[in-house]
Design a protein that fits this description.
four-stranded antiparallel β-sheet; alpha+beta; Alpha-Beta Plaits; 2 helices; 35% helix; 68 residues; globular
């Protein structure tokens, strides 16, 4: 597995609480959102970028894969 990075619209702690169940299904304890970064970067250990985008969309957030 590799660590992928996504630009997101996850802006605060409340947002992180909302996305936690979805992201924990993909990579429990192996993801992080840098809300201090203007691009709100999600780093997650996974091989499936489409699955991350889909899971976040299900809970009302967007994600765009950044170049590796």
């Amino acid at each position: 597995m590799k660590t992928l990075k996504f630009k997101t619209n996850i802006k605060c702690g409340s947002c992180i609480i909302k996305v936690t169940p979805a992201l924990d299904q993909l990579a429990p304890e192996k993801w992080n959102v840098d809300t201090a970064n203007p691009a709100k970067i999600l780093s997650i250990e996974t091989d499936n970028a489409d699955e991350v985008v889909s899971k976040l969309k299900e809970v009302g957030y967007s994600a765009q894969l950044l170049a590796e």
